[in-house]
Amino acid sequence: MDTSLIVSNILNPPILFFFLGMLAVFVKSDLEIPAPFPKLLSLYLLFSIGFKGGVELIKSGLTQEVIFTMLAAILMACAVPIYTFFILKLRLDTYDAAAIAATYGSISAVTFITAGAFLTELGIDYDGYMVAALALMESPAIIVGLILVNLFTPSQGDRDFSWPEVLQEAFLNSSVFLLVGSLIIGVLTGERGWHTLEPFTQGLFYGILTFFLLDMGLVAAKRIKDLQKTGVFLISFAILIPILNAGIGILIAKFIGMPKGDALLFAVLCASASYIAVPAAMRLTVPEANPSLYVSTALAVTFPFNIIVGIPVYLYGIEMLWR
Prior knowledge:
Layout: H1 4-10, H2 13-26, H3 36-60, H4 64-88, H5 94-105, H6 109-122, H7 130-137, H8 140-152, H9 163-172, H10 174-201, H11 205-223, H12 227-256, H13 260-271, H14 277-285, H15 291-321
Helix pairs in contact: 1-15, 2-11, 3-7, 3-10, 3-11, 4-5, 4-7, 4-8, 4-12, 5-8, 5-15, 6-13, 6-15, 7-13, 11-15, 12-13, 12-15, 13-15
């Protein structure tokens, strides 16, 4: 493998600022991002990629390739939590296994955005409608995780799930709502809307992504101490499962005939894990699960692994298979 890809990825400003955030925690600096700003930055990123995805979707139209990609996204969002659940059940109880499986069945929008920036840096094109795949993969894992809890807990009949609350959290949480809403507005306004908002959605994007990753570095470093509770099994899981999921995603992308850029984004969606939407839903619906397990593995292991090593490794695999 060409290691220059990994080096080039690490030397990107957003990744370096991620390390800077981690370093600030390790050296006990008082660097801190005030609480409301990370939320604002994440909302901006979701708004920008959703809107751009809608514009690109209306430009490309609902082709056979787009439909197959959307179906593949739904398939992986449902399949990943099922097979990861049975792997996790080897060492964990049903509640923790289902919560972690749901976390890895969902996606990380920031990892997706970082992969897009990586492709742009390399001059590799990708289709904006991949954002629609991102939106489709955010929620199904929550539903699958809850179904697994219901099926495999001995006292399943006594559980008192409020399915309206579960569905609301899965499909109407702020990130999903804003992402899908921006996508639809992008579809409705097309090129005209894009040119109107371009200075805001395009010109500021890279800088805000960089600042957001600085905050992610701070948060990830603070979560590292929680890894002492997860043990070798979960740390290994948090590195190996993304590779397995990305490998399956790459094979599906090859079968469908996706171009290289889209294949990488699809692989990254399959390989990433949610650390916002799913943990929020799991705290509400599966309080028996330990949050330090599913949050720390996703945020302190899988997220940095994907953005530093995973993305260039997945691209290398794609380039080998696409020759």
